[in-house]
């Protein structure tokens, strides 16, 4: 510690709050100044002249406590810190400084300075630290009392800590206009050792701390009590206040309520709309502030504070007055002699100001009267002015709030006219705007200015055009047709200038920013689509948030501006909630539109959870809601966790109760002998908040059980044993230590019997030797060390069951087609609770129709198949009859009946036999077709899967499909059940038919099997072609499709280099093979098959071998080749002549003789041969296979001769192919011969 003087060295700054709440003794000189002269050497007692004030020091250099005093002899100084002497006593020097080696923290405390000499001691007075105590839920005011100043200070409430944290303000904790800190209701968390009020004087750049206040909030058992709202501010009981304000000054109306729960405040303008005033709500709606109040803001205002228990109101009458302000000001001008001058001077204010005039500073009342001078309301008029009237005229407006004054000179002079404005100026304006074309003329007398446009119509005849006194031409609401040149002229002088006006389209915002609600953490888009005149090349778009201009950030940062004007705000947070405006600025105009972003999010978790005891097992839980983030809190979810009866790893939070969103407390009734913690979750439309911090632990004292276990029942499984069980109670319901169960039982029919009892820690409880399925009264009571729970009600339970001893009797059956109704009499000795009966049903033999046909077919089945598997029908309950359905007709069955309980099935009744009657058969299992000729079909079917009797035969029906009318059904009856095919002739090859086959027994006809079919098949060329490449040929093979028989086609082929398109002979699709020969070795060919003028198939293949070389001298010049060709031609002519001779004799071709032999010798073996996977016997005539309607059946003799092992070929006498592809199936009837091909058949063989 040291006295006056600088410290020797600077140390790093640290933060320390030195509290010096000092009240100083004011010392008054013993004699009046100047009344008596006191000699200098006269002894005087000490008088304090400089006294210390409270200090906040951040380093040793900041620590300086001044203390100076006058007196004779010179006083000595000493210091007292926190009631103890601090440092040595010094003479003449009283200022206290920090020592270099001391810690700054050691100087914290309360100080008092003593100044002493021989005549006495003066000292500063220390005010003790303020300490306040209150209970939870009470209201509280901490006063600040800052020093008075012409500029009110800004108050900061802080706590004394190393970081000097601001006190968090809210609806519950509010700082008032007077600087005081108001608590609507106190929480335990409000307890703090040092509340410090700091007054900031911005103009003086000074912050003065006030004395620290210690606040202690004590627990109260009455936290759950409620308080209606009352007002801290305005104080007093009068519900009305009057506020007088001056125009353009700032005014704040204040309503600070207290109550429990914390009241909310709302404002309204009683004689108008609050939205139409300049008032803004702030400080948690406790203030209604007018930054620059206007006359329109005066009127009646009302604040209303309310909570769930009531409300209170206070009204304010705001009267706005105004100091004088100018409405119209006189202008300084030059005038020519003889003119009349009018100086207008009009002012407004509340009260109305008084206007006075002076000339050259001399009031007009003191100036000699002048007949040419007159006063009217707000104007001074001078007529026929002279040079002597040149002067400075003063106009002054005055009311009780102040005065304003204007100086205006009047200069009387003669000057020639001239135009001061520039010639040829181009003016630009936008549609709907106003424009002024300047033509400032100078002269004395004042020149008379006229304007002319390009039209002959006078300009001033347009009401939108005005000529101002200074010569300016003003056009209002300009239009496109206003563009052009305007001429300004001075009357009676050869003076004029031209002005050019260009009118542009007005800038318009087409899509304005919207008011958007955005989820926190996402992105928000605000549109600002606009239109501007294309001639305006320079423009900018300015976005503002809360009227503050936004700067575009990097692409990954906050704000992104797009070329179309859209603003993107990424990762929006709560502080992004604000009004946003978009302004489009061009060289000529600007336009603005506003929207807003409201950031919504799940609420913040509640805070400051506190528990108060209302009783042994009753608490009140209270909390402070967190921020709702622009979405009202709908409800609070209170969760509890019981920790005494569970291990730490098994603790879990469980929902306790939900309360509405305007509640902030809940009364809880809990279980005895438990330890609880609670937490609260807030919910709004966006979801749940995070859970709040858990409350403190609260344990409850034990008590006797308040309930008994539920679900008391018997679960006996063994005969002669009674097993009593129940739903075990949760540990938190035990209500005390040493918890167990008291079990009581007695026989149900023995009301006078004593109760038997036993004790167990957990279920079940077993009683032996009780008999089989004997009823007992049973009950269970919860017991702990303090006693038993309420008296339990008895339940009925049974000892263990055994399987039934008797079987049902009197079994009877009634057969109804495939259903049998079984009835029986009840079993007597069930030895348990009867659950029902089981009816096993077994077919004792195969169906009788199978037995009937067995000998005829000489079929012997496996004896194990003679008895079907047993079918068991279960009948639940006490029923003694049941219908068994789904039996096979024309069959023999046996059944029996057995009772069953939970232990199993009893003995079965003796077998009972019955038979089902014969019935109509089911449909044939399948129906297929074969088409041997154009007009015939063979139908093949298989017997029904369910004959339901002795099959007698079949009925075949068929009908031709005719569009215009219904055709009759033809029918054939087959009496032999072993016949399963039928040949039909004389069918129309161009029509489809509906075929039905019906099986019949003695009981009637069954349902038909129906198919649609035709005699012939449509066909297309093959497309699944495999190519085997040879030296001079390609071997093409394919498998004809099921419906692709007897179709003629050509194979087109083209040599890739230097060739032309060639065509093969007619090929039949049924061949399955064709050899394309006569090709060049080592050459690539393109192969195609055309169908319906489109490429049906195509492929590329190359012959093997080397490409033949070209002989010198040319192909046609080789002699040996010419001779060979001539020999071949001669040989062909000879063969042709022989053929003509043979035909003229009418004989058969040799090939025909060969065919006749092949029909006899090869037709039968071909039945079992196959070619690939194809089989004619597998072909089916169905609706998906339409008729060929006369397709070609020609084939290649050469190709088929080489591959004759796979096909069966027949020709008529003109060589036409009439055969049919033969596969694994049998050769259809009637395909061994065919008539000659008809002309229609021949004409169908065309290229495709």
Automatic annotation (TrEMBL):
A GO-annotated cellular component: plasma membrane
Main location (coarse class): membrane
Source taxon at top rank: Eukaryota
Composition-biased stretches (Basic and acidic residues): 1151-1170
Domain Fibronectin type-III: 605-703, 705-802, 804-919, 923-1019, 1021-1112
Region (Disordered): 689-719, 788-810, 901-929, 1151-1200, 1215-1248
Domain Ig-like per the UniProt entry, residue ranges: 46-128, 136-216, 229-319, 324-411, 417-498, 506-598
One GO process term, biological-process aspect: axon guidance
PROSITE patterns assigned to the protein according to its UniProt record, in alphabetical order: FN3 (PS50853), IG_LIKE (PS50835)
Keyword Repeat: yes
UniProtKB keywords: Cell adhesion, Cell membrane, Cell projection, Disulfide bond, Glycoprotein, Immunoglobulin domain, Membrane, Repeat, Signal, Transmembrane, Transmembrane helix
Any one GO molecular-function label of the UniProt entry: cell-cell adhesion mediator activity
Matches recorded under CDD domains: FN3 (cd00063), Ig (cd00096)
InterPro entries per UniProt: FN3_dom, FN3_sf, Ig-like_dom, Ig-like_dom_sf, Ig-like_fold, Ig_I-set, Ig_sub, Ig_sub2
Function: Neural cell adhesion molecule involved in the dynamics of cell adhesion and in the generation of transmembrane signals at tyrosine kinase receptors. During brain development, critical in multiple processes, including neuronal migration, axonal growth and fasciculation, and synaptogenesis. In the mature brain, plays a role in the dynamics of neuronal structure and function, including synaptic plasticity.
PANTHER family, sorted: L1 CELL ADHESION MOLECULE, PROTEIN SIDEKICK
Family: Belongs to the immunoglobulin superfamily. L1/neurofascin/NgCAM family.
Protein name per its UniProtKB record: Neural cell adhesion molecule L1
Organism: Lates calcarifer (Barramundi)
């Amino acid at each position: 510690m040291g006295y006056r003087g600088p410290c020797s060295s600077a140390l790093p700054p640290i933060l320390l709050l030195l509290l010096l709440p000092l009240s100083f003794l004011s010392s008054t000189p013993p004699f009046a100044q100047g009344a008596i002269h006191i000699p200098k050497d006269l002894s005087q007692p000490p008088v304090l002249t400089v006294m210390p004030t409270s200090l906040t020091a951040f380093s040793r250099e900041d620590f300086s406590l001044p203390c100076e005093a006058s007196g004779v002899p010179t006083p000595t100084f000493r210091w007292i810190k926190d009631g103890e002497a601090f440092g040595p006593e010094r003479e003449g020097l009283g200022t206290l400084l920090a020592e270099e080696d001391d810690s700054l923290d050691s100087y914290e405390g309360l100080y008092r300075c003593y100044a002493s000499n021989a005549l006495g001691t003066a000292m500063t007075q220390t005010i003790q630290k303020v300490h306040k105590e209150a209970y939870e839920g009470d209201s509280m005011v901490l006063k600040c009392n800052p020093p008075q100043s012409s500029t009110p200070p800004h108050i900061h409430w802080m706590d004394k800590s190393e970081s000097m944290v601001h006190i968090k303000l809210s609806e519950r904790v509010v700082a008032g206009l007077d600087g005081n800190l108001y608590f609507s209701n106190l929480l335990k968390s409000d307890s703090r050792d040092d509340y410090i009020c700091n007054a900031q004087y911005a103009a003086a750049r000074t912050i003065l701390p006030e004395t620290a206040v210690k606040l202690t909030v004590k627990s109260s058992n009455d936290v759950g009590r409620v308080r209606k709202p009352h007002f801290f501010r305005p104080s007093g009981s009068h519900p009305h206040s009057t506020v007088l304000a001056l125009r353009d000054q700032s005014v704040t109306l204040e309503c600070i309520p207290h109550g429990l729960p914390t009241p909310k405040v709302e404002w309204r303008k009683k004689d108008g709309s609050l939205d139409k005033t300049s008032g803004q709500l702030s400080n948690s709606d406790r203030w209604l502030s007018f930054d620059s109040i206007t006359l329109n803001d005066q009127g009646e205002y009302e604040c209303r504070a309310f909570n769930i228990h009531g409300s209170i109101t206070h009204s304010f009458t705001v009267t706005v007055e105004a100091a004088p302000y100018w409405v119209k000001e006189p202008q300084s001008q030059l005038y020519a002699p003889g003119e009349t001058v009018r100086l207008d001077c009009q002012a407004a204010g509340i009260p109305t100001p008084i206007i006075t005039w002076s000339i050259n500073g001399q009031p007009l009342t003191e100036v000699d009267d002048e007949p040419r001078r007159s006063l009217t309301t707000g104007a001074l008029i001078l007529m026929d002015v002279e040079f002597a009237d040149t002067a400075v005229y003063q106009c002054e407006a005055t009311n009780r709030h102040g005065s304003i004054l204007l100086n205006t000179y009047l200069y009387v002079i003669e000057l020639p006219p001239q135009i001061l404005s520039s010639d040829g100026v181009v003016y630009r304006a936008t549609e709907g705007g106003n424009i002024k074309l300047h033509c400032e003329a100078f002269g004395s007398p004042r020149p008379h200015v006229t304007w002319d446009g390009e039209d002959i119509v006078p300009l001033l005849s347009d009401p939108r055009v005005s000529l101002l006194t200074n010569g300016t031409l003003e056009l209002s609401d300009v239009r496109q047709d206003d563009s052009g040149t305007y001429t300004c002229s001075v009357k009676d002088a050869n003076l004029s200038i031209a002005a050019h006006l260009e009118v542009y389209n007005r800038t318009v915002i087409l899509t304005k920013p919207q008011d958007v609600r955005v989820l926190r953490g996402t992105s928000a888009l605000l549109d600002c689509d606009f239109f501007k005149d294309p001639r305006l090349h320079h423009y900018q778009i300015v976005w503002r948030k809360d009227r503050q201009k936004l700067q575009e950030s990097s692409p990954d940062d906050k704000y992104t501006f797009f070329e179309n004007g859209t603003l993107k705000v990424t990762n929006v947070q709560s502080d992004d909630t604000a009004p946003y405006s978009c302004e489009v600025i061009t060289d000529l105009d600007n336009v603005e539109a506003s929207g807003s972003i409201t950031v919504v999010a799940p609420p913040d978790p509640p805070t400051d959870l506190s528990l108060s005891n209302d009783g042994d097992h009753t608490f009140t839980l209270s909390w402070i809601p967190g921020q709702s983030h622009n979405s009202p809190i709908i409800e609070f979810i209170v969760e509890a966790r019981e920790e005494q009866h569970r291990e730490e790893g098994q603790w879990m939070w469980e929902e306790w109760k939900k309360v509405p969103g305007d509640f902030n407390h809940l009364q809880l009734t809990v279980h005895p002998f438990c330890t609880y913690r609670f937490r609260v979750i807030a919910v709004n439309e966006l979801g749940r908040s995070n859970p709040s911090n858990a409350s403190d632990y609260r344990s409850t004292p034990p008590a006797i059980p308040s309930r008994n276990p539920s679900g008391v029942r018997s679960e006996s499984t063994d005969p002669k044993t009674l097993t009593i069980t129940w739903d075990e109670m949760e540990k938190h319901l035990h209500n005390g230590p040493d918890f167990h169960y008291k079990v009581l039982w007695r026989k149900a029919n023995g009301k006078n019997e004593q109760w038997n009892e036993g004790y167990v820690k957990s279920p079940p409880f077993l009683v032996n030797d009780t008999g089989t399925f004997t009823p007992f009264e049973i009950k269970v009571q919860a017991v702990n060390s303090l006693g038993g729970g309420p008296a339990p009600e008895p339940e009925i339970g049974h000892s263990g069951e055994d399987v039934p001893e008797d079987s049902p009797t009197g079994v009877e059956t009634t057969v109804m087609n495939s259903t049998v109704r079984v009835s029986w009499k009840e079993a007597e000795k069930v030895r348990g609770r009867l659950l029902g009966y089981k009816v096993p049903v077994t077919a004792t033999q195969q169906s009788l129709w199978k037995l009937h046909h067995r000998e005829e077919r000489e079929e012997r089945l496996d004896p194990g198949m003679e008895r079907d598997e047993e079918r068991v029908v279960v009948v639940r309950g006490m029923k003694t009859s049941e219908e068994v359905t789904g039996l096979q007709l024309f069959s023999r069955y046996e059944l029996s009946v057995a009772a069953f309980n939970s232990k199993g099935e009893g003995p079965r009744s003796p077998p009972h036999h019955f038979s089902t009657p014969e019935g109509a058969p089911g449909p044939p299992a399948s129906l297929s077709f074969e088409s041997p000729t154009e007009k015939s079909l063979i139908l093949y079917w298989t017997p029904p899967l369910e004959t339901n009797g002795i099959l007698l035969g079949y009925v075949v029906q068929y009908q031709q499909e005719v569009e215009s009318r219904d055709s009759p059904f033809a029918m054939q009856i087959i009496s032999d059940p072993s016949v399963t095919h039928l040949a039909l002739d004389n069918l129309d090859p161009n029509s489809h038919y509906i075929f039905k086959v019906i099986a019949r027994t003695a009981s009637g006809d069954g349902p038909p099997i129906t198919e649609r079919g035709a005699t012939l098949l449509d066909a297309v060329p093959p497309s699944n072609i495999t190519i085997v490449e040879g030296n001079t040929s390609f071997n093409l093979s394919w498998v004809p499709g099921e419906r692709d028989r007897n179709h003629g086609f050509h194979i087109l082929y083209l040599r890739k280099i230097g060739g032309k398109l060639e065509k093969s002979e007619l090929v039949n699709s049924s061949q399955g093979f064709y050899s394309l020969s006569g090709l060049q070795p080592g050459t690539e060919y393109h192969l195609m098959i055309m169908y319906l003028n489109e490429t049906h198939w195509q492929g590329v293949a190359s012959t093997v071998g080397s490409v033949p070389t070209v002989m010198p001298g040319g192909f046609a010049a080789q002699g040996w080749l010419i001779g060979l060709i001539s020999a071949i031609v001669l040989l062909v002519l000879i063969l042709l002549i022989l053929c003509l001779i043979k035909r003229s004799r009418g004989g058969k071709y040799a090939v025909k003789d060969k065919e006749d032999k092949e029909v006899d010798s090869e037709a039968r073996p071909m039945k079992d041969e196959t070619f690939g996977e194809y089989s004619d016997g597998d072909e089916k005539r169905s609706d998906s296979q339409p008729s060929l309607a006369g397709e070609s059946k020609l084939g290649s003799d050469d190709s088929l001769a080489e591959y004759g092992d796979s096909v069966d070929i027949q020709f008529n006498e003109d060589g036409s192919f009439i055969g049919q592809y033969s596969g694994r199936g049998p050769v259809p009837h009637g395909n061994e011969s065919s008539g000659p091909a008809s002309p229609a058949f021949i004409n169908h063989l065309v290229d495709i």
